[in-house]
Every structure is written in C-alpha cells, then in structure tokens.
Amino acid sequence: MMPDGKTTAPPARRSAPEVTLAGLGKTYRGAARPTFTDLSLTCPAGRITVIVGPSGCGKTTLLRCVCGLEDTSAGTIRFGERDVTKVDAERRGVAMVFQNYALYPDKTVAGNIGFPLRMARMPKPDIERRVAAAARLVRIEDYLGRRPSELSGGQRQRVGIARAIVRGPDVLMMDEPLSNLDTKLRAEMRAELGALQRQIGATTIYVTHDQTEALTLADHLVVMRGGVIEQQGSPEDVFLAPRNTFVADFMGRMNLIEGKTADGRLTTGDGAEARLDGYPAGREVVLGFRPEEVALGPAAEGGLTVSAPIERRELLGTEVLVTLRLGERLLRVRVPVGTPLDGTITVSVPPRHLHFFGADGGRIDFAAEALPRRQVSSR
Amino acid sequence: MTTAVADADILAEPSRPLPRRWLSRRLEPYVFVSPLIVLIGIFVLAPGVLTVALMFFNVDILAGTWKFTGLRNIQQAIGRGEIANSIVVTIEYALLTVPPSMVLGLLVALGINGLRAGGSFWRAAYFLPVAATLVAMSIVWRWMFLARRGLVDQTVGKWMGLTDWLNSSDLSLPAVALVGNWQQIGFVAIVYLAGLAGVPKHLLEAARIDGASAWHRFWHVTWPALGPATVFAAVISSIQALRIFDTIATMTKGGPAASSETLTYLLWKRGIYYFDIGGGAVVTVVLLAFALLATWIQKRASRRLERAGSR
Ligand SMILES: Nc1ncnc2c1ncn2[C@@H]1O[C@H](COP(=O)(O)OP(=O)(O)OP(=O)(O)O)[C@@H](O)[C@H]1O
Ligand SMILES: [Mg+2]
Hints:
The structure holds 2 protein chains of 2 kinds. In chain A, the strands form 3 sheets. In chain A, strands 11, 12, 13, 14, 15, 16, 17, 18, 19 and 20 form a 10-stranded antiparallel sheet that branches. Chain A has helices at residues 59-67, 89-92, 109-119, 124-137, 153-165, 183-200, 211-217, 235-240, 245-250, 366-377; strands spanning 19-26, 36-43, 48-52, 74-79, 82-83, 94-97, 171-175, 203-208, 220-225, 228-233, 255-262, 265-267, 273-277, 284-289, 295-296, 303-315, 319-326, 329-336, 344-349, 355-357. The relative contact order of chain A is 0.12. In chain A, α3 (109-119) crosses α4 and α3 (109-119) packs parallel to α5. Chain A is of the alpha+beta class. Chain A is elongated, with a radius of gyration of 25 Å. Chain B has helices at 2-12, 27-54, 72-80, 82-114, 119-131, 134-144, 151-160, 172-197, 201-209, 214-225, 227-243, 246-251, 263-273, 277-309; strands at residues 57-60, 65-68. Chain B has a two-stranded antiparallel sheet. In chain B, α5 crosses α8 (172-197). The interface between A and B is medium-sized, with 28 and 19 residues. The structure holds adenosine-5'-triphosphate (ATP) and magnesium ion (MG). The site of adenosine-5'-triphosphate has 12 residues of chain A, from α1. Adenosine-5'-triphosphate (ATP) binds at residues 28, 31, 35, 53, 55-61, 209 of chain A.
C-alpha cells in the first residue's frame, strides 16, 4: 500500500471497541413481518466481521441499525461499554462506505473526504493533513481537485473509503463496497481493503454477498438468512464445517444429494445410485461435496464415487465445470481441461471432503461415527 | 421448453423494415411541425410585430384611421413620466413579492416535507390560493384592508399605527404585494416540494453519518440539489410579478397617485381606458423587454444548472 514508506496512516491508532448486538429486533414501519428478531452478534474489536447472506436477508438493515440510520424495535447495541442504542447517527461516530458511493456531487474529492472533519469543526490545516493522508492511503491523491462525476467507479469508491477512514473511526461499516466494480478491480480493491483495515485497526462490519470477499476478508464470518444468523465463526470453520445445508450451499455452492445409505451405496429417492464406501447403512442423509473437491475416476479408499452422464460443460480457464445428471438432480464438478468429456464421467470424493447433514438440514458427524467400521472393513 | 423454442423461432425470422413512406425523410419533420408554426405565427409573431409597428402610429379604431407619427408616441410617453414611474413600481413589486415568497415558500415546503402525517392536507391548504380566482380573492382582501373597520386596521393598524393601507401612497403597493405573496407562497412551496422529493436520500444519510447537523445537511446536500427548483420558482414568480394586474385593478386601481401603477396596469389604462393605442404599444414593448430579460436570465441560469447537473 505504501511503497515509498513516507505515508502516514491518518488516524492515531486507538483501541477500537468490540461491537455487541444483543437481542436486536427491527420491524419497518408498516411492514407485515419483522426483518429480524432477537439477533445477537459480537464483532471482535479491531477485526473485520463479514456478514453474508442472500438478497433481502436483512444485511443492509442490520448495518443501518448499527450506524443509527434506523431505529431498532428491541435490543441493545454497544460499542465496548458504551450503549449507543439511542444515540443519533450524527453523534454515533460510525463511518460508513456506501454501496452507491454516496459522494456529494457538488464537492471536489478533497471536499468530500474532508467533509466529516469539517463537520467535526477540525482546524483547517489539520483537515488538509488528514485529507492528504487518507487520499494517499487509498491512492487517490492525484484527483483531489476533481468532482465525483469526473472519476471512474473504482476511483469514486476509493473516495468513499477515504471519506470513511479520514476521521480515524473506531467503527467502520461497509455495505457491499465493491459490488459496482469489475472483477479485476474488485480483486485489487479487496486486497487493499484488507490491508487498509489492518492499518487503521477499526472494528469493521462488512456486508457482501460475494463468497470470495467474505472468505478472504473475514476475521469473523456471519452467514445470515431471512434475518437469522445461520452460522458464525472463523471463515475456515464456516467453510470447512458448514452447520447446515443452507450454509453449505451458500458458501461454496456445495452439491447436495439426499438419499439413504445402503451397504456401499447411496440411493436417492428417484432411484439413482452412487457408490459410497465405508459408511453405516440404513441412514437418511444429505450428502454434500464441493465441485472442486472431486477427483477423476473411482474412489481408491472409501468415499463417494459417482458415474453419471454429462449434461453441460463450461470452460472456466484451466478447469471445466461439468454438470452431471444423477437421477433428477444436477451435480457440478470441476475437472482439469483436457479431461475426456463425452457421454459419462466417473468422479470420486474422498471421505475428508464429504459433508453429511440430517433430514432437517443440520450437520451430522457421520464420518466420525463410521470411523471404526471403516477401519475394520478397509483392505 | 417448447415455448422457448417457438419464441426463439420468432426471433430467428428475418426482421423486415416497413416499406418506405411516400414522404421523403427530409420533408417529414416540416410537415409535422407546420400546424404549430402556423399557429405561433398567427397568435404570437404577428401580434408582436403589430405591437412594435403600432408604436409609430396614431390609431383611431373608431374612425379606422392610421397615421404615421414617427417617434411621437415614445416622446409623449417619456414626457408624461408614467412609464418611468411604472417601471419603478413594477420592480418594487417584484422585489416585494419574489424574494419573500421564495424564502417563505421554501420554509413551508421544508415544513410540510418534514411532517410525518398530514402532508397532503397542508399541501392542499397552501396551494388553495394558487388555484383560487384572484379577482374574487382580491375583493376579500380589499374588504380586509378597509379603512378603520377592516381586519388589518383593527389589528396591525392598532398595534403598529399603519392604517388605511389602500389609500396610502406608501402602503398601497405593499398591500397588493402582501396578496401577491399570499398567493405565490403556495406555488413556490409546491415547486420546492417536488424538488425536495428529488433530493437523494442516501446523500442525506451519508451526511448524517458524517456528523452533519440538520442545518449542515440542508446547506451541503438539500440546497445544492434544489438548484433547478429554485431557478424554476424564481422565473415563474418573476413573470407573475411582471404580469400582476387583477389585484391592482381590484384593490387600488393603480393609486393613490399612481403609487401602485405597474406596467400592466399602465398598459391597460393607456390602451383600453384612454384608448391611446400607440401609447399602449409603447408600454407593451417596455414590458416585452422585461419579459425577454427575464427569459435571458433564466436561460443562462438553467444552462449553468444543467452543466452542474451533469457532474
Ligand atoms: N424501508 C423499508 N421498509 C420496509 N421494508 C424494508 C425496507 N427496507 C428493507 N425492507 C425489507 O427488509 C428486508 C431486508 O432488507 P435489506 O435491505 O436489509 O436486505 P439485504 O440483505 O441488504 O439485501 P441485498 O443483498 O439485496 O442488499 C427485505 O425483505 C426488505 O424488503
Ligand atoms: Mg443490501
């Protein structure tokens, strides 16, 4: 971020507070149903908490409640020890990066970045120093005299970020800040944002529905659906052990096969079959695996083997995303380019990449149960 | 599946352009605008040219005679001094109505916009004077301004000693301007309410997050976004001020001692009352000059705003 090493971070590093939401409820005026009820969440101090979830699950609403743009119907919001539930947005001191940038069109870049400082009645020389520093941090220093309309989308987004960090905020909110950018710029900005956050050390709540963003940026990952937190934890935990089929599907688009285990097989309701070695028979399960965790050919020692006709092929670059038809359902697997792909393909998933869920969708520890028997039966 | 295939077939059909029409492409636009051109010619351009021409003639409509008199109409008008007086009165009237009604209209709009409920009632209440017949309303106002027994003399007159407004050469124009404001505020408020609906909400929220107080949110976000509404309201109000006639005719008849004789009233007096067509034409041309000036200012201001809007 700072190749010349001269740049100084604008905010003095203060101890950022932990953000605690307890029993939070929100019902919009005139809405039939609450957006969420009894939502509790702790965002670790100075770290990035990423909230992911499908559209309409209440991510933006949650952010707006935390920064004070919406009243809450129930519960408390704390920044460290300080209860801010009833504090007006104007005084809550939260900084926010908006999805649509929300830059002031009549002000220059410098005017935009310096606006929060002006509102805080900071002396002019201090404002100039901080604006320059914030602009250098997001590498927008060459555009300080321009107006937002004379900037590209990525540059505008940087201005939005600079405006948010210029105060050296303790709590920083970002609502899908990268969603309007193209893929390449998004990847760049993602890396920069992560580095930037570590530099300024603000407790950050970051909303996205991009899985990559969520996994790369999060210190603490929260998966929401319909106003309910489905799972939270470190990104590794969430990704490697999704708590239910929803999380499994949402984070990493897992293939899910509902079926019944029989001896060495998994039979689905529609009569299709796959080989499944080393698991107890007679259980109704939902089996999950990710497209990228398959190997070509049948399983060597235990695990799942699927032989199925190819429905569709999509070139991803060095890999091909192949859609298979197993009975009524479609499975997606990724195989290297050059794999012969006509008619039928046989792929396998080793046990360590298999996930099992119960009929209610909750994760079950099926493999561990099966471990002793598998050892006995393995050759 | 089948419908998708059928739909795809429809799209796969070659698209045939319509056969060429008999009119050539170049002629077509002129044919379409010609009715309007003719109407504008008859009702706008011809009367305008005629008015300018009339300045140089002595016309007797009853006898049907036209006599070219050169600049005499203009010399007489200047000699009488009434045009200079009317220009001053008109400008005074504009100053007494446009700025106050703009400020008050904005305040009313901000108030109504901030209401949680009942906004449509207050919108209607403030818009009522705009929709009402001004002559009828002026009669009510004349009655309120009546010497001694009128509501104004009973209240303001008692407290501040300002009595008999309509017969005072100092207070007659302010009295008329008061009615002008009363009517104009509702109009300005409606324009500003429409403008306020277009103020980006996310910018107001961003400003709140940035720690801006209500006043700063207004000054840094709302007011810049209201630019087009301000120009529009100012232009229309100014034109209304130039055209003011009904209230003056009903309440003061330009008096006392021409102290409320605006250009429009003078025009009526000259052209209709004294039947001095040439003299009336001179006043009309002065009025036209003012209208052109207002249009020019509007053009410039809105061009600047358009440029501002594009950034
Ligand atoms: N102002 C409002 N009034 C009433 N209901 C609202 C309002 N804003 C949002 N909602 C509802 O609240 C729910 C959550 O909306 P929210 O904007 O928080 O979703 P989101 O998770 O941010 O979605 P997205 O990913 O599409 O941005 C939705 O069902 C939405 O319809
Ligand atoms: Mg949202």
